[in-house]
Structure formats: C-alpha cells, structure tokens
Design goal:
It holds the Pfam family DHDPS. This protein has 293 residues and is an alpha/beta fold. It has a single domain, classed as Alpha-Beta Barrel (TIM Barrel), CATH 3.20.20. Helices cover 46% and strands 13% of the residues. The protein has an 8-stranded parallel β-barrel with strand order 1-2-3-4-5-6-7-8, surrounded by 6 helices. Helix 1 packs across helix 2, helix 3 packs parallel to helix 4 and helix 8 runs antiparallel to helix 10. The radius of gyration is 18 Å and the shape is globular.
C-alpha cells in the first residue's frame, strides 16, 4: 500500500483564505485518473502549520470522502507536542485512513531518546500504521538510523519518509530495520536514486503538477526498469528543483493554479505568493518538463 508515487497534496484555499473543497475534490480526481499510488493529506505541503485543528481534520476527512476508497489516504498527524500528535492520530482512528505520517517534533529539538519516546507514545496510543518523517532542513532535528531501528521494532511503525537526500541511509536503514520496513523518499530530486538504492517510493511535491509522469516513473523503477524511469526523471529534474526556488508549497501552489488544477494559488501567512522573479523560473521548468501551462 505504501509504495510508488504518493503525492504530498496541497490544500487549496479560496481568495479569502478559506479551504476550497471544490478544488480539493478536483485534485483527488486528478490523482486517481493519473495513477497516483496514495495521497498524503495535510502534510507540510498541505500547510498543516497554518490550518486550525478543525480544518486539519475536516480536510483529511473530505479527502477520504472524495476518494471513496479508490486511492489510499494517509493523514498528516505530526506535531511538536507529543500529546497533540496523539490526539490527531486518535481523531483519525476508524475513519478509513490508511495510516499516519508524523514529522519529527520541530523547533524544540529533542534528543534521540526524546524522538524514540515521542513516537513510542504515539504508536502505543493508536492502532493506525505510523510512517515516521525525517526532514531536518525544516525541523532542526535529525532522526538517526539507529533511532529508526529502535522504533521499527514497534508493531505499527511501518516505515519512514526520509527527506535528508542522503542516499547512504537507504542501505543502512535496510540493514538495521529489515527488508519489510518501508522507506520513502521525501526529496523529489533524489527520489528515483532512492528507489534504485532499495527504497519503496516517494512522497512527492512534483506529483502535484506532474502526477502521471511521476506515477509512470515509479512503476517503471519498482519493476526494475530504471533506465526507462530515468528518461522521465531527467525531463522532470528542472521541475523537481524549481519547485523549491522558494519555500514549499509556494511554487507548487502557483504552478497548480497556472495549470488550472486549483482555482486559486492562495496561501496563508506567513507564506506569501510566489515572487515575480521566481515565476519565470517555475514556468520555464514546467515547459521543460513538458507540463504545459
């Protein structure tokens, strides 16, 4: 269930800054038609940091409703307070979500033991499968493979999204955690190489605007057709990079709006719209990737 091209879905907002559920429904249909393997609702790209708790829960539940069992939905449930992450996990229990994606606690910089105890408490509080999420560039804490190995012994901690870009961790994590522990890339630019090194897939920003290409690429890669997958990846590489020319999800929401995938490219403060100087770079990357405006 947790493999292939999974999208870190944007949360569309209307011109007033409220959640645009009509656009959300359209996005779900777009990903089902494109062959996306799973949707992550309200992760970092979904602006989890600026949604209220009620909005967070509603967006996940509406995504589930729109999907209607046709594609797995993974709920973003991370928080830098353990009790809050537990609350989110419990709120989605029994709803039909396939699992939870839980980012390492940000800002408060826990130790490795603190990370272990954080995730252990979450795992013990819910029956839902838990995917760890390590993204030190955003959280200022790096969960080491040895800590992941301790957590992998807990029954419902099933995998990790690794956004370090460090491909050497794939082999090390496999050695420490075993073949069945799911490893997902959180870095589009190195995602294909991550799978070639033994990973299981990607949770992707690029898939928001190039869903079919990403789905095809990872189907090829996971079936051993790395050269064919690399042809697609080479075409998408400028897009992988330019979608981070400013803080995610600023560029990808602008791109999704330009492509007509969402009605508005609105963000919530402190994020602001894509700068004029960056727009030509993102538009050029879309053109080079053959993702047409």
């Amino acid at each position: 269930m947790f493999s292939g091209s999974m999208v870190a879905l944007v949360t569309p907002l209307d011109e007033t800054g409220e959640v645009d559920y009509a656009s959300l429904a359209s996005l779900v249909e777009y990903h089902i038609a494109a062959g996306t393997d799973a949707i992550v609702a309200v992760g970092t790209t979904g602006e989890s940091a600026t949604l209220t708790v009620d909005e967070h829960v509603k967006v996940v539940l509406k995504t589930l409703e729109f999907a209607n069992g046709r594609i797995p939905i993974i709920a973003g449930t991370g928080a830098n307070a353990t009790h809050e992450a537990i609350t989110f996990s419990k709120l989605f229990s029994g709803t039909g979500v396939a699992g939870c994606l839980s980012v390492t606690p940000y800002y408060n910089k826990p130790t490795q033991e603190g990370l272990y105890q954080h995730y252990k408490a979450i795992a013990e509080a819910t029956e839902l499968p838990q995917i760890l999420y390590n993204v030190p560039g955003r959280t200022a804490v790096d969960m080491l493979p040895e800590t992941v190995a301790r957590l992998a012994k807990l029954e419902n901690i099933v995998g990790i999204k690794d956004a370090t870009g460090d491909l050497s961790r794939v082999q090390k994590t496999r050695e420490l955690c075993g073949e069945d522990f799911i490893q997902l890339s959180g870095d589009d630019a190195s995602g294909l190489d991550f799978v070639a090194a033994g990973g299981h897939g990607v949770i992707s920003v690029t898939a928001n605007v190039a869903a079919e290409d990403m789905a095809t690429m990872f189907k090829l890669a996971l079936s051993g057709q790395i050269d064919a997958a690399r042809e697609i990846n080479d075409r998408l590489m400028p897009l992988h990079k330019k979608l981070f020319v400013e803080s995610n999800p600023i560029p990808v929401k602008w791109a999704a709006h330009q492509l007509g995938l969402i009605k508005h490219g609105q963000l919530r403060l402190p994020l602001t719209e894509l700068s004029e100087s960056a727009r030509s770079a993102v538009a050029g990357a879309l053109k080079d990737a053959n993702v047409l405006l």
